[in-house]
């Protein structure tokens, strides 16, 4: 395994645009595989997003909101899409304040990850919020959610019960546990 | 916050099917919001997938493969889509053996998470492989990848360098660190 190993790169032969929406777009690429055969790849484009581990009195700020793709509500850390050209750390401050009211002095990057690299290019940036001060939430027009805060044991329980069940929030709880045990995020 | 709080449930008024592919499908739902307004929701349907934290001599098995949505290769833990009707633990055993050659006596669930609940219903099951025995990999026809194994320090380094940058592998490394520190996965 060498660095930047693209010996298995797939060459795009054709791109068919399927859909261009408010949040995502979809294309189907016909590609040439390393063995010379062709295949199709279904690719969702997404602007990227941010999410925030914010601890207040040793509790994690979470929001409960309805997730239409799942047909139910979920408890998640504050998160949102990047606006065009927006710095991830600024987006994280904006989303935290909009959804929870808390203002944040600085955002420390924990990690950035592609949520579903098999079919989507969504890159999610996870931050740790420092220097928090309370304030007034200010939700988007079509955003409905409740903010609360969970102890570590509650967060663990919520994961066990399936009330927390999304990648970013579970990654944040894992990062929090590592932070509790080591004082660092990995 | 009450359990199964769906007071913000969105009622589906109309569903438009946009695309039905090999891996994903796409629909746009028009919904009624809690305030009576309407909005659209872009929803990707996915069959679900599995991924495996497998430790051999205290090293994590990983595969490097080209990811067309990202336009580059990535190092990830073994993973793959669920076949219709397949048990996640069976799929995890199958994918581990196909991609790495290792057979696994039992698959212990670590966690299951929705990768992108804002726009997709993909549910990913993360397992810990126990009782591993080496064997011969057996890749799908259109699958090209290299298998290797990383120490914890190497995995950490790969994350810092961006060679590991997907949610499932970062979650697996976090889980591994918690396991190293506590003997359990959370």
UniProtKB/TrEMBL annotation, chains A, B:
Keyword NAD on entry: no
Origin: domain of life: Bacteria
Gene Ontology MF, one: hydrolase activity
EC category name: hydrolase
PROSITE patterns in alphabetical order: NUDIX, NUDIX_BOX
Keywords: Hydrolase
SUPFAM superfamilies: Nudix
Chain ranges of the Nudix hydrolase domain: 44-179
This enzyme's EC code(s): 3.6.-.-
Keyword Repressor: no
Cofactor: Mg(2+)
Pfam families (alphabetical): NUDIX
Family annotation (Gene3D superfamilies): Nucleoside Triphosphate Pyrophosphohydrolase
PANTHER family referenced in this protein's UniProt entry, alphabetically: NUDIX HYDROLASE DOMAIN-CONTAINING PROTEIN (PTHR11839:SF18), UDP/ADP-SUGAR PYROPHOSPHATASE (PTHR11839)
Family of the protein in this entry: Belongs to the Nudix hydrolase family.
Name used for this protein in its record: NUDIX hydrolase
């Amino acid at each position: 395994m060498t660095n930047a190993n693209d010996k298995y790169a797939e060459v795009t032969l054709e791109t068919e645009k399927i859909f261009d929406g408010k949040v995502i777009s979809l294309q189907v690429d016909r590609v040439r595989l390393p063995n010379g055969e062709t295949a199709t790849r279904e690719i969702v484009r997404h602007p990227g997003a941010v999410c925030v581990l914010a601890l207040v009195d040793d509790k994690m700020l979470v929001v409960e909101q309805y997730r239409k793709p799942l047909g139910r509500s979920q408890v998640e850390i504050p998160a949102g899409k990047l606006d065009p050209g927006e710095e991830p750390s600024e987006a994280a401050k904006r989303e935290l304040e909009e959804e929870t009211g808390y203002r944040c002095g600085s955002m420390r990057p924990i990690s950035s990850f592609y949520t579903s690299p098999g079919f989507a290019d969504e890159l999610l940036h996870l931050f740790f919020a420092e220097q928090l001060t309370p304030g007034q939430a200010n939700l988007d027009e079509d955003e409905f959610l409740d903010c609360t805060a969970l102890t570590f044991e509650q967060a663990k329980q919520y994961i066990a019960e399936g009330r927390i069940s999304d990648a970013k929030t579970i990654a944040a709880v894992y990062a929090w546990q590592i932070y509790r045990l080591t004082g660092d995020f990995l």
